[in-house]
## 1
Amino acid sequence: MNFSAAKNIRADEETLSQIVQAKMNLADLAQIRLAIEDAETLANAKGVSEAGALASTLSACNQFPKALDALTVFRGKFPDQMYVQWVAGTILTASGDLRKGESEFRKMAEQPEEIGDASNGRLLLAQSLLFQSKFEEAMRVLTVSSKINSPQAITRNDAIRSLLLAKCYLFTGEPEDALRMLRAVEKQDQENPSNLKLFRNAALIALDAGDVDLATRFARIVSRLASKEEFKSDLAQSFDQQLRGELARRKGDAQAVDLLDGAADLRGDPQNLLSLARYYLEKRNCQRAKVYLDKVIERRGLIIDDFFTPWTIWNEAVELKKRCAG
């Protein structure tokens, strides 16, 4: 992707903000570090989402002291805005201040006047609680969340809620309930490329819950979207290869590692890296697994910046690394 060409054509604040977000979506720490320069240009932007790019970008590449400094400046310019609470919650959580991060999301969740945003707040609060292994409380928050959604947010937020509830049920040892929640995700628009990550994540959770058939159905949706000329991208191809690799791994197919490697080469997405780590752990190659687990762990800020993926990926990587050490 030629970011320089895009800036030469149109270098306004909105374009720079989109370039920063595009580099974040690459999930490549080197690219995110390059995005900091553009984000610094946006620090004095008039729009709240553009002005917040610097703090978020610094956090995504684990530069937490600088991110917290940028957050202080950002909050001073835009006091009492929900988007600022969102940015603050993710940065505080990523930097390790889980109590303060949870508090920011709780403030969002408790504001009734903006129903759509309140729903987002509850989903973020549930993510925070899941990250802290507070599964029962996360489930209570998600149950309340289902009653306050706005018509504009219902499709996407229902899917995210279903994924988070499925994760909760997995961690509490109730795979059948996890699978029940995932079936709701199948009702999302299967022709919409913006749902790719939802379907990919649903497939991975289905595999963890032991339903290969359901995982295969989700994988086929991803593969179909990835094959469409108008939707082709490294992101879509990496998701397709990852799921084909995961399904091959379950079958004991030797092709699994090539597919998983290919997915990680296309996009250093933390889920892709975790898939590779699990493959090598299964082969009892802890030395190789640690390489990928370390890469997941160093993406903590990036993982927590992602609204669509359960933040438990980081905890799972830490736990798997402990098993290697043992």
## 2
Amino acid sequence: MSGWPADECDFVLVNYERTTPRAFDAGLRRFAGAGAAAQAGSVASSFLGSDPVGTTAAFALPAVQGLALHEVWLSEGIWRIRLENLDETVDYGLSVHPGNLPWLAKSHVLPNGLAWLPPAQDRTRRS
């Protein structure tokens, strides 16, 4: 379960490296104060390798998809990860999660492992 405030993107992850692969029933429940619109979906991760250096790749997020998962294994240490919004019309987010838990939600991130990148027009208004 994960329950972020209204109008926020939220998700729950299943780590099949740490639990038996099987089918899951998933649902969406509206609570008081939640936004009127909701979208539920399921996506699988794409493995990008271990300890990447330099630019990994450019990815596009289809209009009807709210989440894209890219799995990267990182060695212990300090990592700098940069998310660039090349399209400048989507409010992208990036989260880095530990790989040792079977169930993860948006809140289960490594320290300083969650960030948002607003569209360009929002960045100019906020500065």
